[in-house]
């Protein structure tokens, strides 16, 4: 056992406080009225408007059409996050499986080709992507939001490295055990990849959940509004003497944080469990 | 399921032009335990993997039972393999590890359960059936790997250095178990190892490989007592056989300037092989031996030294200190003569007269 070190703990506590303070401030401010925030700035004390604000942002119909509620936006974000995470997992695992376990011409150049092109961030290729999707008639559709972003260089790379670390003997044992390519993939590789899948899922879910630019381009229909866009629209009301509803923006931001937090907590357990259980 | 295994002028050349195995022919009888032994890089594992179907065959044919299996998938060859690192599926329990292959072959569940139960009983794994491999010791994992092979009920077992990841003591135990199990099941087995002791104790017949070619095939004692080449002589047996440069002059075998006795051959250079345990101490005369060091092994001791400038090792019972200068002799029956250039054994180089005199119990050096 290591000795208790006050200094180490102090540093950790300060670090935690430093990271948590803005979140706490956002949460506490969201429990005050918008006008108070406008006058007095951010709060570090609890207010009285909390329940009402949260109820309002979740259920009040807003937007230009007056149709979109916070819950609807949260659902859209969830669809996007889950669609991204699951889709990317499937695509990148299959791609990596092909690259590692099947011998075909130019496999390595193909891999590096994929890798380098997809290293470019979305923003660089966003206009051509938009053009293609618009000509396919995929604007204002859920699949148009998700599918173009599914190919994942990061995921493919991680799974490729992971599959390469799986001992060859397992493949050979499986071949002797009469497993075809699919059976080996589903029966051996996928179960072995669980920790890796959890890690990729966390990253990709948060990535999808936080998407802002792509949904904004792809969807004009308010039924597809996500939380990120909701927060933005609340703050975009500087018309006349209207005060932005800071409290509602904060409330939405706090709500928007919860699902990724949940995903991280749930899968982190599985991730750590997978790591400690593995005997390699 | 009974099956013989035949390899016919089997060869393996890799894409880069490296030849790993060349012209290996071997007929394995049904139920026979064959050990492929040789130093690392001799092609023994490649050969085994060619039989298993994990490595493509460049030339020749492999026949299991009455089927040529060259073009068949590993699963269709009716073999089971035990790997050096066990290759157990880490996410499956012992039971699942043993039954997965059977489920892939669509064997009825009741039959699978019965086979797994039977294998677990044989290997004393019943208590561990629902554990995962990581919860098992090395020896138990090895047993599970064996169990997976047994439940397949294959025509042949293929073992790829299955014991080299175990500690020395466990290796001896598992060696005995593998041998017993194989005899009991009566399944043909092909076993690869680099450990000559393992090879000697397990094999019905040994196949000594060197550089992708067969050096010698034979029963363990046959190989030990009549090694076909200097390579086999040096590889089989511990300590390694002493190999010395000798000469035949006028029908006499001359070593280090000493006349050892008559041989039936013209004058030439030969390599004389004598095993450490076949060398005897003499009071006087014989080969002058300069002592260099002694390894005490308990019951015996290995005495290292030089015969002129040629290193030599002899095995003696433990006892009193030895003087620095000794005199050695060896029975002509214990001589192994090899061609110096090719390393091949010289057949019956011993003089017929000498042979009969030895039979009569005479001392060849007298």
Explain the overall architecture.
The complex is a heterodimer of chains A (280) and B (366). By secondary structure, chain A is mainly α. Chain A has helices spanning 6-29, 34-40, 50-59, 70-101, 107-119, 126-135, 142-146, 153-165, 168-176, 181-192, 194-209, 213-218, 227-235, 246-277. Chain A has one domain (74-277): MetI-like fold. In chain A, helix 3 packs across helix 14 (246-277) and helix 13 (227-235) packs antiparallel against helix 14. The longest helix of chain A is centred in the N-terminal third of the chain and has 32 residues, at 70-101. The radius of gyration of chain A is 23 Å and the shape is globular. Chain A starts with 5 loop residues before the first helix and ends with a helix. Chain B folds into 2 domains: 5-230, P-loop containing nucleotide triphosphate hydrolases (Rossmann fold, 3-Layer(aba) Sandwich), CATH 3.40.50.300; 239-359, OB fold (Dihydrolipoamide Acetyltransferase, E2P). The radius of gyration of chain B is 25 Å and the shape is elongated. Chain B has a 6-stranded mixed β-sheet, sandwiched between helices. In chain B, strands 13-12-11-14-20 form a 5-stranded antiparallel β-sheet. A 5-stranded antiparallel β-sheet of chain B has the order 15-19-16-17-18, with no helix packed on it. By secondary structure, chain B is of the alpha+beta class. Chains A and B meet through helix 9 and helix 10 of A and strand 6 and helix 2 of B.
